[in-house]
């Protein structure tokens, strides 16, 4: 009987020591966990400070820059060569001609003003001039005829605009002079039958009879 009591007493005491050890282990602080806890608390405190500082700052002004409106040129924007505002230099005239030649073969499209979709005559001149000079010509050929100064066909220079009338009335066709002088005036234009092409104006009965003038910008 005494042995059984001793055994049970020992078992009880062992259980008590085991439970005490486990509870002590739980209560023991983990240094790594405590370090993480302190850093987390510090991060939360700094975040609260930043939020409080932002609330005390004045509202930020809207600094988005507005894009400048595109410039639409009228006849008053241009002056004859040698004037005080816009005048085509030889380099710019050559640049206009070279830019126009890039689109040789582009198809004709009524109302067209983009190489991807096609050009009509005044859409072509508008596009080329805008790409080289940054200015937008009036959209209609009759309005483009009011720009710059009038010169004779023999005085035509590369980059000048050359005008025609299909029906003998108002101006309704325009091209760009690519070479000039005497009987060898060539123009690049949007032909309704062939798209963008270069022709010799003086060698063509059709265009020679319908010629109305040249404007130097």
Can you characterise this structure?
This protein has 217 residues and is of the alpha+beta class. It has two domains: 2-53; 79-216, endopeptidase domain like (from Nostoc punctiforme) (endopeptidase fold (from Nostoc punctiforme)). Helices cover 40% and strands 17% of the residues. The chain is built from six helices and eight strands; from the N terminus they run αααββααβββββαβ. The chain has helices at 2-27, 31-56, 90-101, 121-133, 141-144, 205-210; strands at 113-114, 118-119, 149-151, 161-164, 173-179, 186-191, 195-200, 211-216. It has a six-stranded antiparallel β-sheet with strand order 3-8-4-5-6-7. A two-stranded antiparallel sheet has the order 1-2. β5 and β6 form a beta hairpin. α3 (90-101) crosses α4 (121-133). The longest helix has 26 residues, at 2-27. The radius of gyration is 43 Å and the shape is rod-shaped. The relative contact order is 0.12. Residues 58-86 have low confidence and may be disordered.
């Amino acid at each position: 009987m005494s042995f059984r009591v001793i055994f049970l007493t020992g078992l009880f005491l062992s259980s008590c020591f085991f439970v005490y050890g486990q509870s002590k282990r739980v209560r023991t602080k983990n240094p790594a966990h405590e370090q993480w806890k302190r850093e987390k608390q510090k991060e939360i405190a700094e975040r609260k400070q930043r939020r409080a500082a932002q609330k005390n700052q004045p509202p930020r002004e809207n600094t988005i820059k507005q894009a400048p409106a595109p410039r639409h040129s009228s006849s008053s924007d241009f002056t004859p060569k040698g004037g005080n505002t816009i005048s085509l230099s030889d380099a710019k005239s050559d640049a206009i001609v070279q830019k126009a030649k890039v689109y040789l073969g582009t198809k004709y499209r009524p109302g067209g003003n983009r190489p991807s979709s096609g050009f009509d005559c005044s859409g072509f001149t508008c596009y080329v001039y805008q790409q080289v000079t940054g200015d937008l010509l009036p959209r209609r050929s009759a309005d483009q005829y009011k720009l710059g100064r009038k010169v004779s066909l023999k005085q035509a220079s590369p980059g000048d605009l050359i005008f025609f009338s299909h029906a003998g009335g108002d101006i309704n066709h325009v091209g760009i002079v690519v070479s000039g002088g005497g009987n060898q005036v060539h123009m690049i234009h949007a032909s309704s039958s062939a798209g963008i092409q270069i022709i010799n104006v003086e060698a063509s009965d059709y265009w020679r009879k319908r010629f109305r003038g040249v404007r130097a910008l």
